[in-house]
Amino acid sequence: MKTVKDYIRTIVDFPHEGILFRDVTTLFADPRGFRMAVDQMLHPYAGQRIDVVVGLEARGFILGGAIAHQLGTGFVPIRKKGKLPGTTISQDYKLEYGEAIVEIHDDAIQAGQRVLIVDDLLATGGTAEAGISLVERLGGAIVGCAFIVDLPDLGGRQRLEALGMDVHALCAFEGL
């Protein structure tokens, strides 16, 4: 029987030499693999109240939309700077090889709403930490952070757990 990890391909030297890119598009393209991933990402939160799902750009949008649909909740995107119309709040963060800024609409989360944050991959945790900051600044209560892939050698899980987050990943790949 296949696992979620079996559907993920590795691309060597992308986007830079020495990187092993974990490509989840092969998982998304397979109907059984995609359904398995969504179901397994929801499982740890069964029975908990979740008011809204937040997806981190860009593959978190694919997962977040599917998960929100399954839960019967709304979906909120956290996007790269300049991509959202209307009034936003922003958060800068460090990437593995640079810096970036993400934004959320300033009215996307209501105070007290219970939020599940989702993305495809957890590396250093910088993007997820920026997303957590944005949700908390709007008064959201984060139920958990769910990912398909954890890259434990990069320390993202420990970074988010140090913030008090419940972190769930479907599989892990050693190395960069």
Write the layout of secondary structure elements.
Layout: E1 9-12, E2 20-23, H1 25-29, H2 31-42, E3 52-56, H3 59-71, E4 74-80, E5 88-95, E6 98-105, E7 114-122, H4 126-137, E8 141-150, H5 156-162, E9 167-172
Parallel strand pairs: 3-4, 3-7, 7-8, 8-9
Antiparallel strand pairs: 1-2, 4-6, 5-6
Describe the structure.
- The protein has 176 residues and is α/β, with parallel strands linked by helices.
- It has a single domain (38-172), classed as Rossmann fold (3-Layer(aba) Sandwich).
- The chain has helices at residues 25-29, 31-42, 59-71, 126-137, 156-162; strands at 9-12, 20-23, 52-56, 74-80, 88-95, 98-105, 114-122, 141-150, 167-172.
- A 7-stranded mixed sheet has the order 5-6-4-3-7-8-9, with helices on both faces.
- It starts with 8 loop residues before the first strand and ends with a strand.
Annotation keywords:
single chain; seven-stranded mixed sheet; Rossmann fold; alpha/beta; 176 residues; two-stranded antiparallel ribbon
Q: Which strands sit side by side, in order, in the main sheet? A: 5-6-4-3-7-8-9
Largest sheet: 7 strands, mixed
Report the average pLDDT across residues: 96
Supply Rg.
15 Å
Structural class comes to: alpha/beta
Inertia-based shape: globular
The helix/strand series, from N terminus to C terminus, equals: EEHHEHEEEEHEHE
Q: How large is the share of residues in beta strands?
A: 25-35%
Count of separate DSSP helical elements: 5
Oligomer: single chain
Estimate nothing, just give the exact number of structural domains.
1
